[in-house]
Each structure stands twice: as C-alpha cells, then as structure tokens.
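Objective 1b. Sequence-to-structure analysis of AMP-binding protein.
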Amino acid sequence: MNTLQHLVTARTAKSPAKEALVEGNEIYSYSMYNERINQGAHELIKRGIKKGDRVGILCQTSIAYPVLIMSALKIGAIVVPISTGMTAYELNSILKSGDLTAVFYHDDFASILEEAKEGTNISQTIQVEKGAAFTKQFADQSTEEPTLGYDVTSEDIAFMMFTSGTTGNAKGCMLAHGAIAGFLSTSLNEDVEIEEDMRYLVAHPFFHMSTISALVQCISTGLTMVCTKETDPAKIWEIVEHENIKVMLALPPAFTYMMEELEKNPRDISFKLGLSGGTKVPETLIEQFDAQGMTLAQGYGSTEAWIISVWHPDMGWKKISSAGKPVQGVEVKVVDPETREELPTGNIGEIMVRSPYIFKGYWNNEEATNNVLQNGWLAMGDAGRVDEDGFIYIEGRYKDVVVYGGDNIYPDQVEEVIREFDDVLEVALIGLPDQFWGEVPAAFVVKKQGSSLTEQQIVEHCKQKLAAYKVPSVTFKEDLPKNSVGKIVKRTIKEEAIRERDLAHA
C-alpha cells in the first residue's frame, strides 16, 4: 500500500469487529469506522471538495477527528490540522497561506473562525457535532466506497502541517501519501514494544505530527484508540483505569503532572508504555516511570522529518541521555554548520537527515524549502552528535526556534506583533532555559527615548494576538548586541540573560 487512501479499508478486512475508536459511550468497530469514513467522503464530494483542496480541521481531540482525517484522504483532499490555541489573527494567516477551501470545526471555535475567515477564500465551514450526534451527522450519505474517477498517488500531498502562524511567514509542511505510508513498514512498533492488543489513549492533540503518526500506526497495526480532550491528570488516570489503556503519547510536562498525581494517589492500572518527545525528556521522568513498573520511550523528529529516532530502555540505560537510534530507513549525519562538511563520529555539528519520510517542501515557499533541503538532506537546525554506537545526542539548536514544552515558538512571529507598537525600535525574542518547559520565551526590547510604553502593555498586546504559550516575558534594554554587519546577536543576549538570572538567584 503506497497511499493512506484505503488504510482503514485494509485494516477492516483483517479485523472488522475489533474496536477501532472509543470516546465515552461512542464505540466504533473498524467496520463502523470505515463506514463513517465513506459517509464523510461522500459528504465532501457532495460539497464540491475535490482532490488537492485544502480542508482544515479545527476540532477538539474526539472520535470525529480521525474520521474526518481519513474521509478527506479517501478523496485525495489535503488535510490541514489546525491548532485549537490560535487567535483569530494567527488563524487568518493560516487560512490565507494555505488557501483553504473548507474548514470542519467544533462549536467551541465558531466565533474565532468567523472572525478569522474574513478576507480568505474559504467557501464553506462545516460545524462538527459531538459524541452520539456526530455518529448520526452524515447518516444520509452512503456507507459504500465512493467512486472517484481519478487516482490518489504516492506523490500526492496528504497533510499540510503549519509550523508558524504569522502573516507572510506561515509555512505549510507538505507531507506526501507515499512518505507516510512507507513509514508504516518500519519496525517502529517493535522498537518501542507496541503490541496489537494494547489500547491507545489519544489525549495529545491531532494538530501535532506525533499524533498523526500515532493514528496511522494504530490503524495499520489494528490498535484500539480511545480519544479524549481531557487534560486533568487525575481524570486521565481514571480513563486509563476504566478503559484498560496500555499506551499513551504525551509531552514531558503532561507526563510529569501525571506522575505527580499517580504518586499522590496510587491506582490499580495496567498501563505499560508512555511515548514522549517534542523536547528533551528528563531522565528523572524516565526513572519515575520505571519505578512504577512502566516504560517511558522517547523519540526525536520534526514535522518536516517525521520520526527520526527512538530510545527505549531496552536499548540500554547508559544511553538514557540520547535521542535514540535512527528508525529503519533513516540516515543521519553531522556536518560543520559553516562548511557543511561531514564531521567524524562524536563531533558536535548540525544534524542532517535523509529518509523516504521527509516532507516535500513548504507550500508556496521555495526559498524556505531550499534553506532546509540540501542535496536530499534535511537540515534540522539542531546541534548534536552521533556516538560510536549510532545513538543521537541533541546538544542545542542553531536555529532560533524556541521549544516550549514541545510546542515551537517562532521568534519572527512574536517580534512582528511587538513591533506593532510605534515606540518599539528593536526587539529580539529568545528562549531561556526552564527546568519544566525546556524553554520559555523572553523578549528584549529597545524603545524610543522618553517613551512611556511599559512591559505590561506589550505583554497584554501579545495576549490579544498570540496563543498563551507564545506570550513572552518582556525586558527593556538600552541597546541590543550586534555583529559587524549590524545583525542582532541573539546568542549574546541569551548568554547575558542567563548570567543575570543566575546572579539574581545566587
């Protein structure tokens, strides 16, 4: 199978009666899941959605999400998962940049979508029902396979995942059917010891690449996926206990809160495996899992690269600080960031990746694509090394992206919002190390002499324009350090900020 078009159909042929999706009292077998997908596909066709059209999904984690994804893929439409934490300002830039045709949405986001679609080419928005009401939503459509009259090929785009949300800078990563379908033939499940009888809790949002990867892996393997939008640790453990969950994907902060809750209130559960990544997974967290008789595996990857490597305790506790070994089909090398020459084993340089699973490029942005795709290799922007056993170690980043608990914050976007103040002369956003979140955003601003602009005014403005995790702390400076050509040197700003913070806490 070289596309995702019939992924659920193929699984249905093998295990039609097995539970595929669960949300509360709603339970779909794989046969029912396939029928719901076909109904959704017929609905899209009726609405004039065709191959290549960009279809956004602005919904909470729910049983509807994996149905809508596979319905769109069935007819060759491109799925655009949209972050539920966006402001109208951010959402508008994505709707424009991706030239979306339609958006499926939950009523929670009706007002923000109404505001954001102004000035876009959105032809229709479809409100998605919840729970039992969603099961009946497309009941008037046929459950039979739709006749399309065209082929969906391995080169066709399956997903467009946006990595930024600022006007003129939103980048849509184009992920092809063949790349993702090819990944399903890797040994990833064996590497992290996922078995067919495990029930998988989907609590991590579908607008993250890692959850999309988990979805297609679960379908391919025939796992049962239990969906929830719940974030409260105690309630998540209740679901784990009630639904007999064995495996779950989450970012390190979420697992940290869950472990804290479990240690305070022990439960009789059969949970076996946590999957994490997105930022450095603390060794202490891995050890907490082990103390509870559970396993925490971690992965390294990106939207552009898909999954690069995984580490599982069975690979050796001596390698706990690594990001694991490359998965099947992935090549990794380390190059000098200036000369681009490959470096010897153990030397620190920029991580480069080559695999059949990397993205095709950024939507309508050839310049940005060429910046990261170099002779078939993807430049990760991460500083790292590979040891003599092939394990990858991430030491830091060459690029300026701030990683807050697994979510990327792009400095250009935040800086642009702050520059909307006439009194702002210069601004630089950096990430400051944080024990819990990995990094937190911090803005350093030079304002006009005599200006009455305050830090709090900037923070409040950012809160109106940006998702909460992107809102930075603000510090005024007389000037910002620059190099010989007048470019702001963020590395120096970061070093000084860390030094000042350390002195303040000494």
